[in-house]
Amino acid sequence: MPEGRYRSRSYKRTFKKTPGGETVLHYKRKKPSKHICAECGKELNAVPRGRPYEIRKLSKTKRRPNRPYGGNLCTECSRRLFKSEARL
Q: pTM higher than 0.70 for the full model?
């Protein structure tokens, strides 16, 4: 029987084979959902998917795209926004 905290489905269950030949269950937290564009709702590229402790280990440049609205808007929406700002 798993410990109480592992009984919920917020943990992913994986079977691991130990060096002794036994198969044991390991519990791992599930990955969060993909980041989405604030305007159109499309999934964002170049934004890693991971738990906060995993994201913290990445360098700043790998956490989100290095451009205005990076990690918030998709490329099409940000391009549209830049064009509209330039036309004003």
A: no
Task: Extract the tokens encoding 65.
Answer: 């795209």
What residues does 28 pair with on adjacent strands? 12
Residue type, 82: F
Report pLDDT digits (tens) over 21-69: 999 999 999 999 999 999 999 999 989 999 999 999 999 989 988 889 9
CB 43 within 8 A of CB 61: no
Q: DSSP 3-state assignment of 9?
A: coil
- Of 45, 40, 11, 41, the closest CA to residue 25 belongs to 11
Q: Both tokens of residue 52?
A: 């906060």
